[in-house]
Write a structure and sequence with these properties.
Strand content: 15-25%
Number of helices: 2
Strand order of the largest sheet: 1-2-3-5-4
CATH architecture: 2-Layer Sandwich
Order of helices and strands: HEEEHEE
Helix content: 10-25%
Mean pLDDT: 87
Structural class: alpha+beta
Largest sheet: 5 strands, antiparallel
CATH superfamily: HIT-like
Length: about 140
């Protein structure tokens, strides 16, 4: 974990304040879209230009705890966010991901779905994409 993120998480633990529950605090959240149950914010530590997070307003830690209406609004807002990213950054693709649980890399226990724009050449070989979070996922071995 990056030192800045570790400090942020320590502060949250000490104060009991969840970063994603502070929706209207511009010190921690840069809102892109606000819906009834979901909002989209710019990532504080973007992996790529235009990286955003789609977040339930309700404090919920798991994707599997979402209500049907939250699921529906996520679908709508992720498409709206994509449209805004397309207008501003013209990416060549996207990675969409959720770190479901600490074992998967989640560091803040409030669900957030990453929408990461991808650009030709941003990594030498993007084949396999998200599979590279685990060892033994070399795309060259798939054809053997």
């Amino acid at each position: 974990m990056e030192p800045a993120m570790a400090k942020q998480n320590d502060a949250e633990s000490a104060t009991g304040k969840c970063l994603f529950c502070q929706i209207h605090d511009p010190e921690v959240n840069d809102l892109l879209i606000e819906g009834r149950e979901i909002y989209v914010r710019r990532d504080n530590f973007p992996a790529a230009e235009g990286h955003v997070e789609v977040v339930p307003i309700r404090h919920v830690s798991s994707y599997f705890e979402l209500t049907p209406s939250e699921h529906a609004e996520i679908y709508t807002l992720i498409k709206q966010a994509r449209y805004k990213i397309e207008e501003q950054f013209q990416p060549d693709g996207y990675t969409i991901g959720v770190n479901e649980g600490r074992a998967a890399g989640r560091t803040i226990d409030h669900l957030h779905i990453h929408l990461i724009p991808r650009y030709e050449g941003d990594v030498p070989d993007p084949r396999g994409g998200i599979r590279h979070v685990l060892p033994g996922t070399d795309p060259d071995e798939w054809l053997a």
